[in-house]
Amino acid sequence: MPLSPPAQRSMPKPIDIQAVPIAHETYVLRSRTWSRLKFEIEYGLQRGTTANSFLIQADQIALLDPPGETFTKIYLDAVSQRLDWAKLNYVILGHINANRATTLSAILARAPQLTVVCSNPAALSLGNLLPEADLNLHIVKGDDTLDLGQSHHLHFRLTPTPRWPGGLCTYDPATQILFTDKFFGAHVCGDQVFDEGYVVYAEDRRYYFDCVMAPSARQVEAALEKIADLPAQFYAPGHGPLLRYGRQDVLQGYRDWSQTQKSQALSVALFYASAYGNTATLAQAIARGVTKAGVHVESVNCEVASPDEISTIVEKADGFIIGSPTLGGHAPTQIQTALGMILSHASQVKLAGVFGSFGWSGEAIDLLESKLRDAGFQLGFETIRVKFKPTDITLKECEEAGTDFAQALRKAKKVRQSRQSSTLESQTDRTAQAVGRLVGSLCVVTARQGEVASAMLASWVSQATFDPPGLTVAVAKDRAVESLLYRGEAFTLNILAEQNHLGLMKHFLKPFAPGEDRFAGVETEIGENGCPILKDGLAYLECRVDNRMECGDHWLIYGTVQYGTVLDANGLTAVHHRKTGSHY
Q1: Beta strands in 67-200, from DSSP E residues, in sequence order
Q2: DSSP strand pairing (490-495 vs 443-449)
Q3: Burial of 287 by CB count in 10 Å (0-12 exposed, 13-18 middle, 19+ buried)?
Q4: Hey, what CATH topology would domain 16-260 get?
Q5: If you ran DSSP here, which 8-state letter would residue 331 be given?
Q6: Taking a C-beta distance cutoff of 8 angstroms, is the pair 203, 261 a contact?
Q7: Of 86, 122, 189, 303, which residue is the least packed, with the fewest Cβ within 10 Å?
Q8: How far apart, in whole angstroms, are the C-alpha atoms of residue 67 and residue 102?
């Protein structure tokens, strides 16, 4: 029987904990929120999330991956119902950040005798996050083990990425569970503990990979190699349903998606440091925009990267972007070191970008921009300065800036190639001319999520079904509106009228700056589905995205029509005629 889609963001349920046994002496504690947890791009589908923690009660007791501070109180209450804190022996950390450190501090107050098991980078972070804590540490080095008794002889694998340099996976041979923390997750909230009917979560897991893992494709492949020899029955990620039925498909997906990222013809080096997580959040959104446009991102956390690694990466990259927080009116030492390596090793013909976050001032961002400009570098987008925590609108601006940066690199490459190509007509040219004879209705797709709205001109539109009435729209992967067109979301197809389409066509064809209002100067009203309607259109159809299919450099969006009306009964549909099928 087909399963319902993952819970949508409109569900007005409070946060809670779902505690379920998943194997012998092993439990999952699923801290659940049915609404968006954070303003980070990885939560952009707004389907809630689960923060999965695990409890192994053998001769010795271990908690794995406690959740962040949003769930601290209810998590502690749930654990208190299942064990005596005085008997807790270990807390195992797949990664550490400020949110998780808050919960860990509360656990230590109840169980000061416990030992914290983590990687060395995580231990260094803990020293900064909990400077007053007297920690008993078991630092994992290489393929260490930990015996909890009753065959629960845990094996560890170090799986660092730039975003989580302290990454650690844990394998329990007694239950054949691989606890993967940040790997293989999905931000969805529901009652399912395991992934029965796993295809319903395919879009969510791919989106999570694209936002979180794609900028670290090289490190992801290395991590997959480290866990390849472990005979797991299922994966226990930090977010979403546990993977039993779709485990092999998701594992192969990670391999394929990572290889696709690494094989792109162009690459961008993305350097950053992040004191409180805000700059890292901006970096992630920019990286998402770059990868959407078919350009590889090599993400570099300057707090853990060596100068040699930085110089090697910047020399190989086609462009680079650097971001920094401002601490005490300055950029962190690691960013200053990275900037020096860039100025020494990067060619001035390479495109550059600057971003950062700050609390009361932004001197570090100004420093980066001025040094690069003085050195002769051209910036690929207006420098991004964000005060305090980013919002949805900020993240959308960052994503669009990343896409613009990637498109500029691709355009420059195309110009170079055209200068080198033959002027003789080739078979490819003739094929493109033939494909260009396909015509379609000229339309404008509009969509809105909260305060974020976007639109695009579209002519690759076709009716797809009679019952229910449905249509398909081809949306290029690097379109800004693409990120608003996931399954379950609303959009409106505004059909333009012949003899009255040129103004709207020119408006939506022009390039927009990141975050620029697409509807400024256009007469609109808001439809029943919350999306803009163009008053000067011929007709409009209010739709819901029911499916997406990846097709080369486009997504094919299938939407079912919820409502529609004709605004000009005497008008004819505008049609887009092209001379070539190689571009719009």
Answers
A1: 88-92, 115-119, 136-140, 145-147, 153-158, 168-172, 177-181
A2: antiparallel
A3: buried
A4: Metallo-beta-lactamase; Chain A (3.60.15)
A5: -
A6: no
A7: 86
A8: 9
- Please tell me the distance from the alpha carbon of residue 46 to that of residue 66, in angstroms, as a whole number: 22
Query: Domain boundaries in the chain?
Result: 16-260, 264-417, 432-576
CA distance 49 to 30: 9
Q: pLDDT tens across 305-340, in order? A: 999 999 999 999 999 999 999 998 999 999 999 999
> What residue has token string 């502690």?
76
SS3 330: strand
**Alpha carbon distance 112, 532 (integer Å):** 56
Vertex 113: Cα angle to 108 and 115 (nearest 5): 80
Q: What is the CATH number of domain 264-417?
A: 3.40.50.360
Output the six-digit token pair for 414: 């195309």
> Which residue numbers in the chain have pLDDT < 50?
1-11, 423-424
Residue tagged 């910047």 (tokens)? 314
How many Cα atoms occupy the beta-carbon half-sphere of 260 within 13 Å?
Answer: 16
Expressed in angstroms, the distance from the first to the final Cα of the chain is 42
- How confident is the model over 212-245, as pLDDT tens digits? 999 999 999 999 999 999 999 999 999 999 999 9
The sign of the CA dihedral 196, 178, 237, 551 is negative
Residue 336 φ then ψ, to 5° = -60, -40
Task: In whole angstroms, give the CA distance from residue 151 to residue 287.
Answer: 43
357-381 CB burial, b ≥16 within 10 A, e <16: bbeeebbbbbbbbebbeeeebeebb
Compute the distance between CA of residue 38 and CA of residue 113 in angstroms, rounded to an integer.
Answer: 32
Domain at 432-576: CATH code: 2.30.110.10
Tokens of 584: 């719009």
